[in-house]
Amino acid sequence: MEHPMDKTIKAFTDKWWILLVLGILLTITGIWIFRTSLQSYVSLSILFSTIIFITGLWKSRFLL
Questions:
Q1: Rounded to the nearest 5°, which phi and psi values hold at 63?
Q2: pLDDT, tens digit, 9 for 90 and up, residues 2-30
Q3: 17, 40, 41, 43: which could form a disulfide with 33 (CB 3.0–4.6 Å)?
Q4: What span, in angstroms and rounded, lies between the C-alpha atoms of 23 and 17?
Q5: Distances from the Cα of 3 to the Cαs of 9, 11, 16, 31, in angstroms?
Q6: CB–CB of 49/57 below 8 Å?
Q7: Are 2 and 9 a contacting pair, CB within 8 Å?
């Protein structure tokens, strides 16, 4: 008998390389943020505020 989590775990392990690429990209991004602090923080704050704004618009769409 197969456990329900087996399918989920198999789906993640079949595409292990995606997690590897994302980890490498996040590591490079972290190093870049430490090297260019002010520019990075301004860019990240604009990115996060845009994401929060879009998420708010998306949720209010379903509210109406």
A1: -75, -35
A2: 777 777 777 777 778 888 898 898 899 88
A3: 40
A4: 10
A5: 10, 14, 21, 40
A6: no
A7: no
Handedness of CA 10, 12, 18, 20 (dihedral sign): negative
Is 53:46 a contact under the CB 8 Å cutoff?
A: no
Amino acid at 40: S
pTM of the predicted model, to two decimals? 0.49
**Two tokens, residue 46:** 């604009």
- Amino acid letter for position 53: F
Paired tokens of 38: 């002010």
- Structure-block tokens of residue 48: 């996060």
Task: List all residues 6 or more positions away from 33 whose beta carbon is below 8 Å from its beta carbon.
Answer: 40, 41, 44
